[in-house]
User: What shape does this take?
Amino acid sequence: MYLADRGPTPDTTSADAPQGRAGRAAQPGRATRAISGTVFALGTVSLITDISSEMVTAVLPLYVVAGLGLSPLGFGLLDGVYNGVSGLVRLFGGHLADRGRRHKAVAVIGYGLSALCKPLLLVAHTLPMIGAVLALDRTGKGIRTAPRDALISLATSPETRGRAFGVHRAMDTGGALLGPLLAFLVLGMAVDGYDAVFTVSFCVAALGVLVLLLFVPGGRSPATPADPRTAGTPTGPAGPASGSPPVTVRSAVALLRRPEIRRLAVCAGLLGLTTVSDAFVYLMLQHRLGIADRWFPLLPLGTAAAFLLLALPLGMLADRVGRRRVFLAGHLALFLAYGLLLAPLHGEALPFVVLALHGTFYAATDGVLPAAAAGAVPAELRASGLALIGTGQALARLCCSIAFGAAWTAIGDRAALGFAMAGLAVCAGWAAYALRGPETL
Amino acid sequence: MTPRARLVTLLAAVALLGSIAVVSVLHAAERAGERDRAQPGGPPIASGVVTLDAGGQMIFRNMAWGPHRDELVSVAAADPGGARTAAPIRCLRFYAAAGTGLCLRKVDGAVGESYFASVLDSRLRTLRDYPIAGIPSRARVAPSGHLVAWTVFVGGDSYAGSDFSTRTSIVDTRTWTLTASLEAYGIVKDGRPYHAADANFWGVTFADDGHFYATLATKGQTYLVRGDVTARTLTTLRPNVECPSLSPDGTHLVFKKRVPGLSPDEPWRLYELDLRTMREAPLAEARSVDDQVVWADGRTVMYALPGDFGANLWSVPADGAGAPRRVADAALNPAFVG
Assistant: This one.
């Protein structure tokens, strides 16, 4: 049952056992226990960093066209293929973090790299240069994601992980919503002040790195005693003493031999294959419901708002009823959103309902998947394991977006979405079957 | 580190980073103010009346610093570098023909900026405003003044992507019918109907009230398309043509061509295409030009290249002979009227 705990130290199983389903039911007080300071610190780092990065994202088109006078007609600043590369970077970051348990150090490198990209934007005046800076920025994001999620999971008791990831994702999304506001505030004070936007963005990003350095416990023992499993392992606060096998590429790959991890990875991947990328959802919404052009840029905000509001409640729900269940239910929300896009319905409320469902999908999956995965991955390979599952999902989504684009061309948008919807139903059905039974915390 | 030491470090950093941020914003604000002061050596500019039917005039966006920055100005077409007369209307992109003007302009709002395409009469009064969902790029008016078209950039959404897409709209000013996006037209590629989610259009140039040329991009390749307004179709003619501009007699196109082997920073060269023979030839301009050229007369095209104050206007013969010549500083988007 506790597959993850058939790991190196037998004592962890016994440490974990009282916190199984039955154990939790007997201790309702645990569900309301406060989120650890580390999670709030990491949430704050993400909030600040997202303000910084979304500031840049919001003004970049304007900067390129109006500020630099370039015309990126038909020019992808960041090639879609790079999303695949950044997935591989995430694997690398996860593995690097697990080696010697340097989660915080690797996260600092990732956040720091992205922060350093902001001043680089001040000197990058051509499209290829700007594209290179964005790729570097994305590399930083790839590096930091797995160690950060590992830190969240290691700083949280297993039964409140959904809630911890919910808090983190809500703070992250809040930052993403604030960033554009700050950027346009700066541009309002200084006409054409793109350099000021980038400078402020850098200052904000630097602050994020500093909060990470100051307020997230690090060193070689990122885990707090809140996680009984890590507390019990020799690589925990007791230091990297004896007993634990060294973290190697082979041991990271061997994670896939664990049935529970393999099942989760396969399910996340399959569902990722049927997750149509956001841009297509917004395009369909516009085409189907005839949304005016000027509202188009606001559509992602609708998704983000729902994500922000629901990340914590759904994370807590996941702790209570099971993360896989909420993860699957999130895909039901996506399925309904697809259905509404295909249904011959019209109405004022429809775009709001579709965006609310789309945001619900993210709230029920984005933080819940790592929360579900963390229980299946032993602490010493936590970052590698989370990266493995996250990267699989990201690469699957990339494949889906390429295939969906091709299908759109070949058979039209409605038929393409119909196939995606059917695929989603099949994959979700299979995932529900594969992920049945009790889950490891 | 004690909690107290951490807090002190954080506050010190907030103070330092906050100061840097504030100074950078103030500096940018001051520089923005500086642009409202005229620079010595610039062209003389005076407020006055600008109309779209006065004889022998070139009207364009003035980019010279000073109180008239970004306003529409007129000069004598025979002396484009001479004294400028400024009208109190600011446009990011502009074009005009037969007494109809098209001004793509920015309106500052509480959160962010919004953009409008304004159709102007010959006295530069706004007849209609159309909200547009992106950053203005190209503006064109049909020779008759009946049809107008514009292209805007729509930025990629959030973290997910940084790809730009374009949206090209056409308005018939006789009926005020708006085609919000050329994506509503049917595409005929290599003789067959073609559908693609990634189809982007830009750079319309009108032949008459029923036909135009434009650029279609799909799957990383650009095409010259011929548009039929009545049939609402776009037919591909040949690859690698961007921002075409049709000669007054309707027989030649000058366009920017992505020439293989050039630096990705400067990928385009101006080419001329004879529509009767479908033969193309390079113009004498050796630099990369990122503009939709304007025909100054039947033999010369004008285009913008980056300059000290945004852009300068250059001209070059359309037949591949001669040499480029700088005709006006701090100027963009010329239109020849009258």
